[in-house]
Amino acid sequence: MARQSDMIAKFKGKRRPDNFFKTIGRLLSYYKNCKWEFIIAVLFIIIYSVSVIVAGYQLKGLTVVLEQALEDRAGIHMDSQIAAYTSILIYMGVLYFVSVITNYALNRLMLQCTAVVMAKLRVDLFDRMQELPVSFFDSKTHGELMSYFTNDVDAIREMLNQSITQLMISTVSLIGVVVAMVRLSAPLFLIVLVLGTLVVLITKFIASRSGKNYVKQQKALSKVNGFIEEMMEGQRVVKAFNHEEKVMLDFDERNEELRQVATRASMLATIMGPIMNNLSHIFYALTTTIGVLFGINGELIRKLSENSRFDWQKIGVEGAVLIAFLGFIRQFSNRVSEISQQFNFVLLALAGAERVFSLMDMDPEVDEGTVTLETKEDGSKFWTYIDKEGRTVEVPLVGRIELHDVDFSYDGKKLVLEDVNVYAKKGQKIAFVGSTGAGKTTIINLVNRFYDVVDGEITYDGIDIRDIKKDDLRGTLGMVLQDTHLFTGTVMENIRYGKLDATDEDCIAAAKIANAHYFISHLPEGYQTMLYSDGANLSQGQRQLIAIARAAVAAPVVLILDEATSSIDTRTEKLIESGMDKLMEGRTVFVIAHRLSTVRNSNAIMVLEHGRIIERGDHDDLIRQQGKYYQLYTGAFELS
User: Fold this and answer.
1) At what angle do helices 272-296 and 186-233 cross, to 10 degrees?
2) Which of 158, 338, 340, 552 counts the highest number of beta carbons within 10 A?
3) Which residues, 6+ apart, have CB-to-CB distance to 68 below 8 Å?
4) What CA–CA distances, in Å, run from 393 to 398, 457, 466, 473?
5) Which residues in 418-431 are b (16+ Cβ under 10 Å) and which e?
């Protein structure tokens, strides 16, 4: 039981990026897939920021020239002043032109890079999902799974499209502005330090609370999506039982939870902008006031300078310096405001990124098998492995499946199967019957290694299936499930899904075995008819016939039929019996069926109840025993 508990616990809490810098760093690492575009874009960001800052720095020079022009009332140096003024304006014009060009180029490069990053992120997320075990998908609704690709990935895309570029520009510009302000006036810059300290403290305070709420928001959103997807899929059932009001109340409850956490998250994040704007106005006014006092009150400064060894004149602020500094204060405030405006997108994206990366960090389906399936030149297949003495052992692939004292539990607490023993060899048809929840499908899940046994073992041709490579094991098994799934594509492509290298002739032959050829031939475009929405343009019975044809084309060694004919009417069922017999010929076959008429010709019938096999034998033996099977067959006790 401990082994199963460990397997289940493995998916409840995994490594997750739980801090800002780790998550943002992991996102930025995806830019290695377009590193040259990213590097060039960063260079353009630096050029753009420097151009704007240097252009702003020229305000000091313009102000000096204007002051000189005002003092030169006679106009003696007018020509040189005009020339100096014009040259500064041209220089500023060139700088602003460079900033426009680089701004366009960097945004285009970053958008291209974002497309590459998102494509890679989706591939990694999808690939990881393909590697996760069935137990993970059994614990999630379709809506919750899709939420990773929609809500979470879209939140990341919005940040990369809008926020990353703006944050990089604002950060580089902020550094440049700080350097420029320090060069202009160190005393006035002390005021900016106070602003910076307040910004850091406010940002830290809001981020610590808003980030947690955004994570809760994404989880609540996935639950809402899962509920909507489930209700839309089951709309016929909802209406058939008049449960519309109950469904609406359930939705309101989930939606209200989402509203509350979304409101808290957005409220904390959106107050950042107004706070930063108000702080910028306050500090602009303070800087102006202090700068003017230092600059205008020259008499006080000179008197202090005369009566003290300290040179108070050094803290005097010239008009040109003050004007340029105020321009940089405005730039500083704008950059801080831009960062705060992106704050909402960043927190939402990081919440989505945490969920995405936590899924990516889940351990893939473990496959410790060392036994592989090899095919020789004559077409024969063998299980191959190295024994303890280092010798290569070959075991012919026959299809003998045995379950020895198998116990199993999904949650590590309650046993679903207990002390199950089954023996099936090539050419035998083994049937499992019993009430819903008796453990019939669980046995099939264990044979496929969708789950592993808690105790006991399952052998395939005498080899423990846990020692066989999962791909090789499943490659010898063919399944027809009760819940048939057809992919978007042609009928031919859906049949070929059982064996990707099958020819059209192979697919048509398989369809004939399943007695699907007749109805397929009468479809608008025959085998090239497109199927959409899980084959919604076909009847349930037709869909199941295609699934049987898919299994037939795979030519498996072991065939598993899980309620394979449950959606086929009795007349159609009789039509395909001969085809099914041909399909099952020479194979090990496991059949799960509620219709006992479909298992009469089985070599052995296992009657399960509460995870135990209570009766076994062929149809005639079980009828003679007059036990549970007899009651089921005669209608004295019905399957539930």
Assistant:
1) 170
2) 552
3) 77, 81
4) 15, 21, 17, 17
5) bebebebebebbbb
Q: If one looks up domain 486-555 in CATH, what number appears?
A: 3.40.50.300
Q: Beta strands of 117-177 (E only): which ranges?
A: none
According to CATH, where is 3.40.50.300 located in the chain? 486-555
Place of tokens 């960043």: 346
User: What single-letter DSSP state applies at residue 149?
Assistant: I
Distance (Å, rounded) from C-alpha 219 to C-alpha 222? Answer: 5
CATH of domain 15-360: 1.20.1560.10
Tokens coding 70: 């005002």
Query: Which residue(s) pair with 457 in the sheet?
Result: 404
* Residue 282 contacts residue 336 (beta carbons within 8 Å): no
Structure-token match 């980030």, residue found: 211
Q: What is the pLDDT of residues 364-415, one digit of tens each?
A: 888 888 899 998 888 789 999 888 888 888 999 999 999 999 999 988 788 8
- Overall pTM surpassing 0.90 (yes/no): no
HSE at residue 274, side-chain half, CA atoms within 13 A, is 5
- Partners of 133 in the beta sheet? none
What are the Cα distances from residue 271, in Å, to 28, 164, 203, 277? 27, 21, 11, 10
Q: What does the pLDDT look like over 213-263, one tens digit per residue?
A: 777 777 787 778 777 777 776 666 666 667 778 778 888 888 888 888 888
- Show the tokens assigned to 433: 């019957």
User: Three-state SS for 48?
Assistant: helix
Task: Encode burial over 184-202: b for 16+ CB neighbours within 10 A, e otherwise.
Answer: bbeebbebbeebbeebeeb
Q: Report how far residue 413's alpha carbon sits from residue 2's, in angstroms, rounded to the nearest whole number.
A: 9
